[in-house]
Design a protein that fits this description.
5-stranded mixed β-sheet; 5 strands; alpha+beta; about 30% strand; about 100 residues; Bit1
C-alpha cells in the first residue's frame, strides 16, 4: 500500500518540504477511520511524493479520497494533494515524476 502526495512544481522547495509533511498528516487525520489507513499503518506505510504541473494537479483532484492543502504564506495557494493509501492507483499516477 502507498500514499501518494502530489506537490505543485511551482512551489518553492522549503514550502514543498513542509507541504509534504503536512499532507501526510492531513491525509492520515482525514482518513484515519478507513480500513485502508489501518492496513497501511500495519506495514511499512510507503509514501510517494511527486512533482506535478498545474494541469496534472487539477486533474488529480477528480480521484477519490484526497485532501488538498494550501499554504497561508503563499496567499492560501493550493500546494499539495494527498491521497488515502491504496494498493491500486489510477493510470496517471504511474506517470507523475518523483519529487527530487
Amino acid at each position: 500500500m502507498k500514499m501518494y502526495i502530489l506537490i505543485k512544481d511551482d512551489v518553492p522547495l522549503g514550502f514543498a518540504v513542509l507541504a509534504s509533511s503536512h499532507a501526510a498528516l492531513a491525509a492520515y487525520l482525514k482518513f484515519e477511520e478507513k480500513p485502508a489507513i489501518k492496513e497501511w499503518l500495519s506495514g511499512r506505510f510507503y509514501k510517494v511524493v511527486c512533482k506535478v504541473n498545474q494541469k496534472e494537479f487539477d486533474r488529480a483532484k477528480i480521484f477519490e479520497d484526497n485532501v488538498v492543502l494550501t499554504e497561508s504564506a503563499l496567499d492560501n495557494k493550493e500546494v499539495a494533494i494527498a491521497f488515502c493509501p491504496r494498493e491500486e492507483w489510477p493510470k496517471p499516477f504511474k506517470f507523475y515524476k518523483l519529487f527530487k
